[in-house]
């Protein structure tokens, strides 16, 4: 058997043996490979190719970005108007039902307003946000561009915004620390801006009513008294006493904004209808209602809900329509 297989194996291995014995004229043979004279040729070639690829893709994606930005600029220039939105009212995502917002609210991920009166730094963020928000009203007070609006004016220029006087806030000012160090915190309640929207006030009311209260009866008891300061404060008290700076003689400077004063006996705040419509006027003053909680229960988280009341405002607390909810904790 071995003799029978031996010729066939030799025949198979014969070409391989000849190949190993062959000596090529160019100096290349399987038994002694010659190393290239320059060992860096491969690396130089690969680096050059990689650099060309990077240069190509950089130029390609740069051109794509330029084309995309050019398209966006053309779209904004010819399709989107600067002065008014293309879609308004129920044709856009905002709809025609405005919501409420509060200032300050430094933590966007939480609705808790935590005030520690024993340490200034704990509520300094609230004071800073309130000051930053109200500074817009202070630095945009040029009288020529504002309309002096009032209920008595039957026709006003809608292209000129109404002037909002921050002095209507009473004790809700920076000098008094917005009441935080006295455990009497102030908030600014504002209505979200919707282009062209006009309020339809309730009967015997000249604007949008803003009312804040506890989310439950227990929260109402814990929340205590609430004061509302709005543009109606301009007409009260009558400025018949020059020496007292326009304050009624029946009230002193100390108790002017106390529960003895009718300003703190209101059941609701009021955003006058003459501030509307919002037409994207330059330096528009968004009307505010300052809400001050006089005696909130300390060391207890109180749930508070504020609503806007008008005929064309739908209030839905779970969906936050025409309302805003938050928690107040004073330590």
From TrEMBL:
Cellular location(s): Membrane
UniProt keyword annotations, A-Z: Membrane, Signal-anchor, Transmembrane, Transmembrane helix
GO molecular function, one term: ATPase activator activity
GO cellular component: sodium:potassium-exchanging ATPase complex
GO biological process, one term: intracellular sodium ion homeostasis
Pfam families: Na_K-ATPase (PF00287)
Source species, domain of life: Eukaryota
Topology in the lipid bilayer: Single-pass type II membrane protein
Bilayer-crossing regions: 54-78
Family the entry assigns: Belongs to the X(+)/potassium ATPases subunit beta family.
Record-linked PANTHER family: NA_K-ATPASE BETA SUBUNIT ISOFORM 4-RELATED, SODIUM/POTASSIUM-DEPENDENT ATPASE BETA SUBUNIT
Protein name as annotated: Sodium/potassium-transporting ATPase subunit beta
Native species: Protopolystoma xenopodis
């Amino acid at each position: 058997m071995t003799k029978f297989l031996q010729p066939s194996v030799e025949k198979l291995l014969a070409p391989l043996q000849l190949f190993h014995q062959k000596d090529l004229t160019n100096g290349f043979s399987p038994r002694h490979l010659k190393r290239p004279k320059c060992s860096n040729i491969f690396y130089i070639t690969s680096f050059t190719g990689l650099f060309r690829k990077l240069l190509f893709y950089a130029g390609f994606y740069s051109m794509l970005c330029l084309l995309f930005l050019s398209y966006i600029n053309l779209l904004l220039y010819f399709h989107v108007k600067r002065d008014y939105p293309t879609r308004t009212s129920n044709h856009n995502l905002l709809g025609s039902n405005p919501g409420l917002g509060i200032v300050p609210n430094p933590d966007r991920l939480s609705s808790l307003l935590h005030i520690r009166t024993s340490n200034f730094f704990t509520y300094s963020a609230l004071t800073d946000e309130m000051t930053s928000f109200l500074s817009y009203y202070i630095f945009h007070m040029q009288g020529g561009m504002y309309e002096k609006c009032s209920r008595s004016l039957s026709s006003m220029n809608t292209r000129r915004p109404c002037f909002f006087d921050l002095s209507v806030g009473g004790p809700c000012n920076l000098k008094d620390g917005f009441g935080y160090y006295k455990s009497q915190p102030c908030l600014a309640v504002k209505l979200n801006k919707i282009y062209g929207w006009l309020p339809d006030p309730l009967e015997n009311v000249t604007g949008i009513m803003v009312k804040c209260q506890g989310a439950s009866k227990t929260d109402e008891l814990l929340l205590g008294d609430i004061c509302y300061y709005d543009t109606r404060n301009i007409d009260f008290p009558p400025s018949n006493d020059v020496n007292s700076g326009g304050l009624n003689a029946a009230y002193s400077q100390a108790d002017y904004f106390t529960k003895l004063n009718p300003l703190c006996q209101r059941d609701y705040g009021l955003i006058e209808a003459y501030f509307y419509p919002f037409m994207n006027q330059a330096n528009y003053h968004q009307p505010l209602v300052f809400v001050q909680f006089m005696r909130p229960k300390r060391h207890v988280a109180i749930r508070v809900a504020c609503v806007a009341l008008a005929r064309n405002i739908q209030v839905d607390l779970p969906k936050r329509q025409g309302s805003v909810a938050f928690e107040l904790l004073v330590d």
